[in-house]
Write a structure and sequence with these properties.
The chain contains 24 helices and 23 strands. Helix 1 packs antiparallel against helix 2. The chain has 702 residues and is of the alpha+beta class.
Amino acid sequence: MSIIKDLQTISNDKALSFDKKLESLLSIGTEILGLETGIVSNIQGDNYRVLSVITPDNDIPLNATFALPDTYCADVVNSDAVVAYHDIDTVPGASHPCFEKYTLKSYLASPVRVHGEFFGTVNFSSLGSRDTPFTPVEMDYLLLLASWIGNELERQQAISSLNAQKAILEERNSLLHQVTNLAGVGTWELNIDTGALIWSGALKRMLHVHGEKVVKPEDVIKFVVDEDQRNKYVAQFNQMIKTGEDFSYELEVRTDAGEIRWLQSRAHPVMENDRCVKVIGATVDITQQHLDKAILQQKTDMAESALKARGEFLANMSHEIRTPIHGVQGMLEALISTSLNAKQYEYASVAMRSAESLLNIVNDILDFSKIDSGNMSFEESPINLADAIEEQIPMFSKLALEKGIELSVSTKGVEDKTFIADKLRVGQILINLLNNALKFTKEGKVTVETKCTRYGSGRFSVKLIVTDSGIGITEQQQKFIFSPFIQAESSTQRRYGGTGLGLSIVNQIAKHYHGKIEVSSDLGVGARFIVTLMLDDANAGAVAEKASSDNCVYIPSKQELSALKALIVEDNEINQLVIKEQLKEIGIKADLAENGEEAVEKVKGALNGKSPYSIILMDCHMPVMDGLEATKLIRSMGDQARDIPIVALTANALTGDKEKCLKSGMDDFISKPVGVSRLKECIYKHLSKQLVSNENRLKDPA
């Protein structure tokens, strides 16, 4: 039997395993070579392991290991070539470690390579020596056998690798199938060439399709409820096949059971040579999400409606409450300016303080509503903080004097410093803190201190500290003192009054300026409030000088004022009387219009009569025509009408009211109630340009 034929016969025998094939080839080798033992080994480092073996007595087991240096195979590794010893006494000599240990006298071996790398050897040996050296034919047989073993080992490794990958893929596919079922994900696959469509069981269950039913591509679009949605889906699907880009979509479908559901699917085109050959996809049922979204939208709409209603209610309440307060304060102010005896003056003063207290409560509620909705406005401008504090003190000095309390104020910490801040909001901080300090102090002292520390370039940490010797605050109450409505215990609230909003407002203002408010107190000893504000330096020199020059107001003479005429646009009779009396005290004559439509006609008549109004005080809420619409119509009458100052004098004081007035064409905004001094300041400001211009013309008639 030829060697090649033996190899071919054994290789093609599909009934034989790889291990049996090796044994058969080794057995034939021992016969051909006349040697007793045949071994296929795997060598790694100094470790020699037997993969296949043929021996006369089967005394070498599979996977037996030997030390490589104790074998002739060490010579194969070193030479990386065929090694042939027909008689050890001749070559390499009886002193070789292998002979000393195993007494083998003849040996023939070849390296076995797998994927081009050294793997081990195929070797034959015998305890007796050969009479003649190994022939070229025997060498060729050994090389053919080594080559076949190497190729077969490569094939076996490839098969093992494929089987391992197959097992991993099967495990992953099984896991993926379980996960998609658990997650309610339906998968599908479309073969573009054959049109074959495969749906997973989860997808069929999602659409109530019978498990045995074969779904075709044309069946899919029939599930889509809306025709426009169906056409759009088909167009986008076809576009995906052309471009190779993923396609994600949501569809309203009707299942085979007639139920309406919402599905979300993602399709991925598989491209080969720039051509789509297959599309795979995953689909989930998002019906509950759509229902939740609809419910959420409904709740959002309800919440927005409620917020809008609340805003309208607050605006209306602001107008309805401020309007009578304006009348009360205006009449009391007018009354106090008349000749009164001591008792009458005392009663009128008490009534005025009550009106101011009522106004403070209204302001607190409105300010809190602005903060609560995130709409509290801040008008930042350069302010001298020391002056701003000093301006607030006179209103508290009288109250402190009446209660026999010492009021001490020190602004040394911020003297000669100008910051960027909202003067009104900083004033609110001091007003609220001093109100509380004086309210809860029966005797002793209330102090106001300031501190200022540079906090980086152009930035300062400013502290306003108000200390009193009042009733103090319990530790428990200090935990909630800056929360709205719950500053005081019920007994304290009944005794001292207030809205419970003041410190909450201070806290929010401090937060706006990246600061905080802190309190320390001992019950019965007093309390100390520290408000920290982070403020930017306004570069006092240039900015303050410019601000001062911008605020310069011309003070007209009585003669100049007597030549002016104002138009009061107001529907409330009491407020008509109040504003008219205030203008009379300022020295300006006034006409009256009870609504916007009447005001437009009066302005038109005054312009036609060449005696235009010098200023218009415009209410916003009025019957027939409101102040905003009236302002727009007046501004549309021409250049002369556009130059008339129009000031909103309104009880509206919510966020956005001022912006609406200015947008309609008004020049300024004052919220009711307004005293004579504030009204005078506003009128002088808006008449300054006109009065200064007239004065210059008189000085220089040319």
